[in-house]
Amino acid sequence: MPLTADQANYLFAVMRLGPGDRVALFNGQDGEWTAEVVEGSKRGGVLRCLGLAAPQLNPPDLWLLFAPIKKERTDFIVEKAAELGCAKILPVQTEFTNAARIKQDRLQAHALEAAEQCLGTYVPEVSDLQPLQKVLKDWNPERRILWGDESLVGPAQTLAGVTPGPWAILVGPEGGFSETERRQLRALPFVTPVSLGPRILRADTAACAAITLWQSALGDWR
Amino acid sequence: MPLTADQANYLFAVMRLGPGDRVALFNGQDGEWTAEVVEGSKRGGVLRCLGLAAPQLNPPDLWLLFAPIKKERTDFIVEKAAELGCAKILPVQTEFTNAARIKQDRLQAHALEAAEQCLGTYVPEVSDLQPLQKVLKDWNPERRILWGDESLVGPAQTLAGVTPGPWAILVGPEGGFSETERRQLRALPFVTPVSLGPRILRADTAACAAITLWQSALGDWR
């Protein structure tokens, strides 16, 4: 198996591996593989696959819809969604979203790095920025949306009684959703608003908390 | 009420407030106050308190014990603990902790900023770094410890059946706890190990997830 220049630089210049050393590989489909270095330099190299070390761990069918915020907090949301086990990450543009575009490739790289760090072998797809209006218009109503509704401060609605199946979590930008968006979300039959406690959470914190609650009630943390 | 130079710079140079403008104040004890600018310059100023706008929202009796990791992730843990509602934050030194000291004042400032951002009026105290061994030796066994045990990968133990009362959450550094520490923790009657799902979480993610689970099972998110 040939390596890219980036991969070779990391393995042979940064990690200083040599022939016979072993590495863990994953391709996002089959799980984790063990491979052995055959030869390598800063510019390229060859690994030999020795066998499957662990099967692929796929997350439950949970998506995350979030409004991009400041750069480092957006990176953070993608990282945490990958670690906590989301299958797909969809940045959405809301009325109060400042960003007009995102660097999809950078965010996808963050999702990959999070999966590598956490020994996960599944890398969630990060889609490009789309207007929330368009996403909701094209939505398949069989996938329910758990909406972190910041106006519901107070005890959180428990997720114990909600229907299993495909879900998506929706968290807004700093400043929340506009009144128009809130009316629209409240009127959609597939949207369930949920409170995330009595304190106002930042968008990145709300994403972590909502994914955790969903995973422990309906996902693979049970 | 006189202002410090930092506060005056923020209000009058950054936010450009002038006489008659209103600001929200909190002292960490009584809640949120409304005040009016009497006079102000970059170097100082005077505010007049008009009255209490919201009562103090105190978090439940939950502490967070965590091992300091890289700078920005340590900052992040403190920020998230303040937002999600911890009453006290205790950095602890474990066998696999690289840090020999922390900047307590910087972390305390992070906790204050998180409380300000989130309209909370309670600022958790961040203590100085202490060895985990010493903390456990002096521990009051009436406060139970919820231990994010990374060897328990798999479905999370539900917190539904655990005893209410004062609790602390304990999360380890990157690399987890040593075998000696693990044996010791398992032997302590006031320690409850908990799994945080089938994926290995970074320390900062584990802290967010464990606080969220505790808040929704035993805290003020119910």
Automatic annotation (TrEMBL), chains A, B:
Keywords: Cytoplasm, Methyltransferase, rRNA processing, S-adenosyl-L-methionine, Transferase
GO cellular component, one term: cytoplasm
Superkingdom assignment: Bacteria
The protein's Enzyme Commission number: 2.1.1.193
Any GO molecular function: rRNA (uridine-N3-)-methyltransferase activity
Location, primary (coarse class): cytoplasm
Coiled coil: none
InterPro entries, A to Z: Alpha/beta_knot_MTases, PUA-like_sf, RsmE, RsmE_MTase_dom, RsmE_PUA-like, tRNA_m1G_MTases_N
Location in or out of the cell: Cytoplasm
Catalytic activity: uridine(1498) in 16S rRNA + S-adenosyl-L-methionine = N(3)-methyluridine(1498) in 16S rRNA + S-adenosyl-L-homocysteine + H(+)
Name of one Pfam family that matches: PUA_4
Enzyme class name: transferase
Ribosomal RNA small subunit methyltransferase E PUA-like domain ranges (all copies): 3-43
Residue span(s) of domain Ribosomal RNA small subunit methyltransferase E methyltransferase: 59-215
An annotated GO BP: rRNA base methylation
Protein family membership: Belongs to the RNA methyltransferase RsmE family.
Cited function: Specifically methylates the N3 position of the uracil ring of uridine 1498 (m3U1498) in 16S rRNA. Acts on the fully assembled 30S ribosomal subunit.
PANTHER family: 16S RRNA (URACIL(1498)-N(3))-METHYLTRANSFERASE, RIBOSOMAL RNA SMALL SUBUNIT METHYLTRANSFERASE E
Protein name, UniProt field: Ribosomal RNA small subunit methyltransferase E
Lineage summary: Bacteria, Pseudomonadati, Pseudomonadota, Alphaproteobacteria, Rhodobacterales
